[in-house]
Write a structure and sequence with these properties.
Helix 1 runs parallel beside helix 12, helix 5 runs parallel beside helix 7 (142-153) and helix 7 (142-153) packs across helix 9. It is built from twelve helices and eight strands. It is of the alpha/beta class. The longest helix has 18 residues, at 183-200. The structure holds 2-phosphoglycolic acid.
């Protein structure tokens, strides 16, 4: 019922894949397949692909995002990219707190919050990732873990700024493993996130928030997942690199 208030958002997360030339090619292939989408379509690409990607999607219904940004505007942070740098290129979206950043690059709830703040301060819309490890699910602490990640990531974020946040619930055990959460599991945690946000802000704010599911979403399982009342879209890794599969997911979100 409240789902009608929210626009579905399907975002590709290309991770560390595709050169600029390959990015152009992939986006050219995706463009005609998603042109009639009745949902927002985003491709989050490696930093070096941003320029090519932005140019390639001009005039289309695909928006481009980055996969991370640092919390400082500039300085001695070798290898990092700042939010003002992304803003200067007119990149509208950025993924923050992906579990691969948390697992392999020491990202914590606190640094995720700092990056969220920087992205919002620079006019970007954030795709904020949260999700539990398998051990946490097995210990029955999924709700605690995901609620904590959500609350800390949103520290200092106003209700007005919340409009520029999309939350992606991505159970870590489902990412890149081919093991999808069941539609019921995905919906349960997305609903819990929404209730957590309602507690921090208001029911209206929570009802307006887009919450995606991510983790082995593909052309086959997308429809069932996206049919769930609290699942408003998807963050797609592997399948976002396959134009026909990605288009199929976009189609499922458009129904
Ligand atoms: P996957 O990745 O679709 O390949 O599981 C999702 C993600 O990590 O965002």
């Amino acid at each position: 019922m409240n789902k009608a208030l929210r626009k579905a958002v399907i975002a590709g997360n290309w991770k560390m894949n595709k050169t600029p030339a390959e990015a152009r090619e992939l986006l050219e292939a995706i463009k005609p397949l998603v042109k009639d989408a009745d949902c927002d379509v985003i491709a989050c690409v490696p930093f070096v692909d941003l320029d090519a990607a932005l140019e390639t999607v001009k005039g289309s219904n695909i928006a481009i995002g980055a996969e991370n940004c640092h919390w400082e505007a500039s300085g001695a942070y070798t290898g990092e990219i700042s939010a003002p740098m992304l803003a200067s290129m007119q990149v509208p979206y950025v993924i923050i707190g992906h579990s691969e950043r948390r697992t392999y690059f020491g990202e914590t709830d606190v640094t995720v919050n700092k990056r969220v703040r920087a992205a919002l301060d620079n006019g970007l819309t954030v795709i904020l990732c949260v999700g539990e490890y398998l051990e946490q699910r097995e210990q029955g602490v999924t709700d605690e873990v995901v609620a904590m990640q959500t609350k800390i990531a949103l520290m200092g974020v106003s209700a007005e700024e919340l409009k520029r946040i999309i939350i992606a619930y991505e159970p870590v055990w489902a990412i890149g493993t081919g093991k999808t959460a069941t539609a019921a599991q995905a919906n349960e945690v997305c609903a819990m996130i929404r209730a957590t946000v309602a507690g921090l802000y208001s029911k209206e704010d929570a009802d307006a928030l887009t919450i995606q599911y991510g983790g082995s979403m593909n052309a086959k399982n997308a429809e069932e997942l996206l049919d769930q009342p609290d699942v408003d879209g998807g963050l797609i890794g592997g399948a976002s690199l396959k134009p026909a599969d990605f288009a199929e997911i976009v189609k499922a979100a458009s129904r």
